[in-house]
């Protein structure tokens, strides 16, 4: 079956907002009386806000009522939004513009598959809101990655089958979600970390659309 659609995670694939998440989570942890490192923050990549908070609280040895956790998650998001609201098209990662030029020439459908509820804001700030045929974010799903819902909904909204899709992800949870969704998965990062990916490259800057299509269709 030919590949007709590319589905992209947002953070770490098109832009890198990990530093903003880290700064906001670190500020929250500090106010709760402990600290988190950048290495620890790697565990939060591709994980929903509520699940990230649970991981952080466990790290700090804290157990809090749901009401307080809701308030803390909202506070973290407010700090994060203050940071991402300053983003511009200059924050788009290297190679993304060239890759999407190739995508358009290949007449492929495109979608964002992000667990972040802030994905539309980020796309607006970097000027890519109109680039995608579908945007699936945290407001449209009930299960975070590694559940495949964010990608299977993306395929459904594009009107294609999972077998026609390629997923681009930088996180272990996202790679697993794509694989569980029955899609060919391109991991962007280290092959030692993204071991479940069908193809791994450092970033979109190091890939061509034709290379991805050839590899994906070879195994379909």
Automatic annotation (TrEMBL):
<feature type="binding site">
    <location>
        <begin position="44"/>
        <end position="49"/>
    </location>
    <ligand>
        <name>substrate</name>
    </ligand>
</feature>
<dbReference type="InterPro" id="IPR023214">
    <property type="entry name" value="HAD_sf"/>
</dbReference>
<dbReference type="InterPro" id="IPR010972">
    <property type="entry name" value="Beta-PGM"/>
</dbReference>
<keyword id="KW-0597">Phosphoprotein</keyword>
<dbReference type="InterPro" id="IPR010976">
    <property type="entry name" value="B-phosphoglucomutase_hydrolase"/>
</dbReference>
<feature type="binding site">
    <location>
        <position position="25"/>
    </location>
    <ligand>
        <name>substrate</name>
    </ligand>
</feature>
<feature type="binding site">
    <location>
        <begin position="9"/>
        <end position="11"/>
    </location>
    <ligand>
        <name>substrate</name>
    </ligand>
</feature>
<feature type="site" description="Important for catalytic activity and assists the phosphoryl transfer reaction to Asp8 by balancing charge and orienting the reacting groups">
    <location>
        <position position="114"/>
    </location>
</feature>
<dbReference type="InterPro" id="IPR023198">
    <property type="entry name" value="PGP-like_dom2"/>
</dbReference>
<feature type="active site" description="Proton donor/acceptor">
    <location>
        <position position="11"/>
    </location>
</feature>
<comment type="similarity">
    <text>Belongs to the HAD-like hydrolase superfamily. CbbY/CbbZ/Gph/YieH family.</text>
</comment>
<feature type="binding site">
    <location>
        <position position="52"/>
    </location>
    <ligand>
        <name>substrate</name>
    </ligand>
</feature>
<keyword id="KW-0479">Metal-binding</keyword>
<dbReference type="InterPro" id="IPR036412">
    <property type="entry name" value="HAD-like_sf"/>
</dbReference>
<feature type="binding site">
    <location>
        <position position="169"/>
    </location>
    <ligand>
        <name>Mg(2+)</name>
    </ligand>
</feature>
<protein>
    <recommendedName>
        <fullName>Beta-phosphoglucomutase</fullName>
        <ecNumber>5.4.2.6</ecNumber>
    </recommendedName>
</protein>
<feature type="binding site">
    <location>
        <position position="145"/>
    </location>
    <ligand>
        <name>substrate</name>
    </ligand>
</feature>
<dbReference type="GO" id="GO:0008801">
    <property type="term" value="F:beta-phosphoglucomutase activity"/>
</dbReference>
<feature type="active site" description="Nucleophile">
    <location>
        <position position="9"/>
    </location>
</feature>
<feature type="site" description="Important for catalytic activity and assists the phosphoryl transfer reaction to Asp8 by balancing charge and orienting the reacting groups">
    <location>
        <position position="145"/>
    </location>
</feature>
<feature type="binding site">
    <location>
        <position position="11"/>
    </location>
    <ligand>
        <name>Mg(2+)</name>
    </ligand>
</feature>
<dbReference type="Pfam" id="PF00702">
    <property type="entry name" value="Hydrolase"/>
</dbReference>
<dbReference type="GO" id="GO:0000287">
    <property type="term" value="F:magnesium ion binding"/>
</dbReference>
<dbReference type="InterPro" id="IPR006439">
    <property type="entry name" value="HAD-SF_hydro_IA"/>
</dbReference>
<keyword id="KW-0460">Magnesium</keyword>
<dbReference type="GO" id="GO:0005975">
    <property type="term" value="P:carbohydrate metabolic process"/>
</dbReference>
<feature type="binding site">
    <location>
        <position position="9"/>
    </location>
    <ligand>
        <name>Mg(2+)</name>
    </ligand>
</feature>
<feature type="binding site">
    <location>
        <position position="170"/>
    </location>
    <ligand>
        <name>Mg(2+)</name>
    </ligand>
</feature>
<feature type="binding site">
    <location>
        <begin position="114"/>
        <end position="118"/>
    </location>
    <ligand>
        <name>substrate</name>
    </ligand>
</feature>
<feature type="binding site">
    <location>
        <position position="76"/>
    </location>
    <ligand>
        <name>substrate</name>
    </ligand>
</feature>
<keyword id="KW-0413">Isomerase</keyword>
<keyword id="KW-0119">Carbohydrate metabolism</keyword>
<dbReference type="InterPro" id="IPR051600">
    <property type="entry name" value="Beta-PGM-like"/>
</dbReference>
